Amino acid sequence: MPHVEKGMQVGLFGGSFNPPHGGHALVAEIALRRLRLDQLWWMVTPGNPLKSSRMQAPLAERIGLSEKIAKDPRIKVTAFEAAHHVRYTADTLALIKARNPGVDFVWIMGADNLRDFHRWQRWRQIVMTFPIAVIDRPGATLSFLSSAVAKTFDYARVDEADAPRLARMKAPAWTFIHGPRSSLSSTAIRKANGGG
């Protein structure tokens, strides 16, 4: 895990990044600025239980590509989940919380993940562990209104204007952050390159 100090505000941005692209960098940049983060952990996962690993590039390759895209020195590209043999986000967040007392974390996700978020292992536990910042993505702006997580945790939604304070809030707390959007997607890039 990257080194952090007590009192820091740290964003957690996880994914398979297969491959990483400018859309991921844009989400990271928006999160750093709008949430006023001291650090953002770009967490390259060994695999996604909801996706086929058949077309997954090797972890070392995805880490290297992520490091090339993540230019801001506050972004720490890490793959500690592989070293700890962690498979599910709920377990990752529990591990981070246990190992970093006094650090204020916020989970960052693209709005395109909201549609299927209720299919994630122990998704309610994820929402109850750290505040969540949902960053707008093309075609997903309205998905947060109809998603299971938005309906279930409607009472915990925080106004976007309060995003800079989100990391210090007690979960459950979440906000939707509007901003510039990139139409890039890892799936489209793989298809264009002859992958799945």
From TrEMBL:
<dbReference type="Pfam" id="PF01467">
    <property type="entry name" value="CTP_transf_like"/>
</dbReference>
<feature type="domain" description="Cytidyltransferase-like">
    <location>
        <begin position="12"/>
        <end position="191"/>
    </location>
</feature>
<dbReference type="InterPro" id="IPR005248">
    <property type="entry name" value="NadD/NMNAT"/>
</dbReference>
<keyword id="KW-0547">Nucleotide-binding</keyword>
<keyword id="KW-0662">Pyridine nucleotide biosynthesis</keyword>
<keyword id="KW-0067">ATP-binding</keyword>
<keyword id="KW-0548">Nucleotidyltransferase</keyword>
<protein>
    <recommendedName>
        <fullName>Probable nicotinate-nucleotide adenylyltransferase</fullName>
        <ecNumber>2.7.7.18</ecNumber>
    </recommendedName>
</protein>
<keyword id="KW-0520">NAD</keyword>
<dbReference type="GO" id="GO:0004515">
    <property type="term" value="F:nicotinate-nucleotide adenylyltransferase activity"/>
</dbReference>
<comment type="function">
    <text>Catalyzes the reversible adenylation of nicotinate mononucleotide (NaMN) to nicotinic acid adenine dinucleotide (NaAD).</text>
</comment>
<dbReference type="GO" id="GO:0005524">
    <property type="term" value="F:ATP binding"/>
</dbReference>
<dbReference type="InterPro" id="IPR004821">
    <property type="entry name" value="Cyt_trans-like"/>
</dbReference>
<keyword id="KW-0808">Transferase</keyword>
<dbReference type="InterPro" id="IPR014729">
    <property type="entry name" value="Rossmann-like_a/b/a_fold"/>
</dbReference>
<dbReference type="GO" id="GO:0009435">
    <property type="term" value="P:NAD+ biosynthetic process"/>
</dbReference>
<comment type="similarity">
    <text>Belongs to the NadD family.</text>
</comment>
<comment type="pathway">
    <text>Cofactor biosynthesis; NAD(+) biosynthesis; deamido-NAD(+) from nicotinate D-ribonucleotide: step 1/1.</text>
</comment>
